[in-house]
Design goal:
The complex is a heterodimer of chains A (515) and B (106). With 515 residues, chain A is an all-alpha fold. Helix content of chain A is 74%, strand content 0%. In chain A, α2 runs antiparallel to α7, α6 packs parallel to α16 and α9 runs antiparallel to α11. In chain B, α1 runs antiparallel to α2 and α2 packs antiparallel against α3. Chain B has three helices and no strands. Chain B is mainly α and 106 residues long. The longest helix of chain B has 31 residues. Chain B has a single domain, classed as Helix Hairpins (Orthogonal Bundle). Helices cover 78% and strands 0% of the residues of chain B. Classes of the chains: A mainly alpha (515), B mainly alpha (106). At the A-B interface, α8, α9 and α12 of A face α1, α2 and α3 of B.
Chain lengths: 515, 106
């Protein structure tokens, strides 16, 4: 029974997905749905995007609430948790991520419930896929063994490939799905070969066992060879680098983000990235947390720092040159991965503080980016989508609320006070200073300035430009679900910005248990 | 486990490494999506071979074998999704070449 309580967020999301599949299969197609569906197949759930989206978001919010519940009860007091270790580790670290991932999934479901009917791609498999994919993401964040890491990673990714290719009649969406699928499977194969080498070198597939075996390298009686371990570390970093979209493993990111339906883009930016960072932290700190591997001269920190600098610089510079707002947000997500990687690199000295800063940053980033994509959805409607900067010209006059919300999320992404994004960046850079990574902090601050340029540029277009006469402009849509997602995200962005204390304390507690 | 088996393990692992490299290079240089999918399968099977070979050395558990079963099952699911995407791409563009996937740029 204790185990059921401990696993309740995961079980709720999984069973919720199965229930939605049943609802989709046995539900009657609505009259409206048949006339709306332009695809060649009319499935039973078609035209029910709003209902299923609501159901999915309720399930995911329930999952988040259960994660909070288990947190309050205390996972260490629950017997039976040890039974599923090391395959699923239920500690405060995974509960924190479970909460963030459920939140990101709930935003996606709400956005999908508004977006899909509006854009006539009301295919109801979207919502079970979101739930299964979130299930995989939670399992990934909980995993303490290479086996469950692999299964969680693939469960998450397979769902996302389908979400991207949802609009089957669109060459762009299919191309986006194809590119993400090919590079994603390649990355998974790299990670797997790393896993095989680690198993061969250490005889363990659980991260704790690997960590203990790796720690013996160099001792006279050690049976563990150093070369395979280093090769495995490189392969694992490359594989997870693909998932967090760090430069130079980012090539798929702008295309996949642009071609995917916008709620799926929000899912990739929020949930997939967060889950990948969760397992990246766990692998590095538990599997490769040995002193020499965590030191600047002989371990992974310089590699992570290089990835961080490249991701921030390339992401921000290229984002400034985009004409499509969606593509700009894709490059901005690469830059944000870079900032989070600064926090990962900072784990070398103040391990717990730095881990906590990454956790807090991911929470803030999930809320901000989901809100930004939500506002982008709200600004457009069928046939008049908000894609380029020009589309958004003068939208503040036509739809002041949408423009205001969009501005709030952009300010948070740029890191202006008093939004959540400011504190997210502050804590990451603070922990980097504590670890004496001054160069990284300076590069990060310069990048924040570059980033402010293109975020503010969107606001200039929204508030100060008039649309060119005759040019297509975005017409805002009206959807209660999208609006409620944006209101929820806006409250969180302001709440985390004004009162960051509670969630930061939770992040610190999570880092203390899981790091 | 005698010295002979140790040598045999090395051979198997080298074979796995060579197969994995062939798969990785094939994925990177070939432009036919189906060949790229086959290259990924080759990489996964190289991983399987490595796991089974290593399990002979770490014979006290069956983790390596267990891992292989999971990889086989997940690879099948992955191919099902992948082929569906390729089929969809072929229907829209009439091509299975990844160079023809060039609608998205920037």
């Amino acid at each position: 029974m204790d185990l059921v309580i401990a696993l309740s967020p995961l079980l709720a999301v999984g069973f919720g997905g199965l229930m939605l599949m049943l609802a989709e299969a046995f539900g009657k197609p609505s009259e409206e749905g048949i006339s709306k569906t332009t695809g060649d197949v009319v499935d039973a759930g078609a035209g029910r995007g709003a209902e299923l989206g609501l159901g999915a978001s309720v399930v995911l919010i329930a999952g988040a609430v259960m994660a909070v519940g288990v947190w309050i009860v205390g996972p260490e007091t629950l017997e039976g948790v040890a039974d599923v270790a090391p395959y699923l580790l239920i500690d405060r670290f995974s509960l924190f991520f479970t909460f963030v991932l459920c939140l990101g999934g709930a935003f996606t479901a709400l956005l999908g419930g508004g977006y899909l009917p509006e854009h006539r791609i009301d295919r109801s498999e979207f919502f079970p896929l979101v739930l299964f994919s979130t299930f995989g993401a939670i399992a990934l964040a909980m995993s303490g063994d290479l086996l469950s890491l692999f299964v969680g990673l693939e469960t998450m990714s397979l769902g996302v490939y389908c979400l991207i290719g949802l609009r089957r009649g669109s060459a762009r969406a299919t191309e986006a799905a194809l590119k993400y699928f090919l590079l994603g499977s390649f990355a998974a194969a790299l990670t797997l070969f790393g896993a095989a080498l680690l198993y061969g070198a250490t005889g363990h597939t659980d991260l704790v066992g690997i960590g203990e075996a790796v720690a013996t390298i160099g001792q006279p009686d050690s049976t563990v060879a150093a070369m395979p371990v280093l090769l495995a570390l490189a392969l694992t970093l490359a594989g997870l680098g693909f998932k967090v979209a760090a430069v130079p493993f980012h090539q798929w990111t702008p295309d996949a983000y642009e071609g995917a339906p916008t709620p799926a883009t929000a899912f990739m930016a929020a949930v997939v990235k967060t889950a990948a960072f969760a397992i990246l932290l766990r692998v590095l700190l538990v599997g490769f947390g040995e002193e020499r591997l965590m030191s600047w001269g002989t371990g992974w920190p310089p590699v992570i720092a290089t990835l961080a600098v490249l991701s921030m610089t390339v992401g921000n510079v290229v984002a400034g040159r985009q004409e499509s707002v969606k593509r700009m947000l894709a490059y901005s997500s690469i830059a944000h991965a870079g900032v989070a990687l600064v926090g990962v690199a900072a784990t070398i000295r103040s391990t717990e503080d730095a881990t906590a800063s990454v956790l807090f940053y991911l929470l803030v980033y999930t809320v901000s980016t989901a809100g930004a994509f939500g506002a982008l959805i709200l600004c457009g409607s069928r046939g008049a989508e908000a894609v380029s900067y020009e589309d958004l010209a003068g939208i503040a006059k036509r739809h002041p609320a949408a423009a205001l919300a969009f501005s709030l999320f952009l300010l948070s992404l740029a890191g202006f006070p008093p939004t959540a994004g400011f504190f997210g960046k502050l804590y990451v850079f603070q922990s980097a200073i504590d670890s004496e990574l001054y160069v990284l902090v300076i590069i990060g601050l310069v990048n924040s300035l570059i980033g402010a340029y293109y975020y503010v540029r969107v606001m200039v277009y929204m508030y100060m430009r008039e649309p060119v006469p005759g040019a297509p402009v975005a017409k805002p849509m009206s959807s209660g679900m999208v609006t409620s997602a944006i209101v929820l995200a806006a409250l969180l962005v302001l709440g985390l910005g004004i009162l960051p204390g509670v969630s930061l304390d939770m992040a610190i507690a999570a880092a203390a248990r899981g790091g | 486990m005698g010295a002979l088996l140790g040598n045999v393990l090395e051979h198997y692992v080298m074979l796995a490494g060579v197969l994995f490299t062939i798969g990785a290079v094939g994925f990177l240089v070939r432009r036919n999506v189906l060949v790229q999918l086959m290259s990924i399968e080759l990489m996964l099977n190289a991983v399987n071979l490595a796991f089974v070979a290593y399990n002979r050395v770490h014979g006290d558990d069956m983790n390596g074998h267990m891992f292989v079963f999971f990889i086989i099952a997940v690879a099948a699911a992955e191919v099902a999704v992948g082929l569906a995407i390729v089929l969809s791409f072929y229907r829209l563009t009439g091509s299975v070449h990844s160079d023809d996937a060039d609608a998205l740029k920037g």
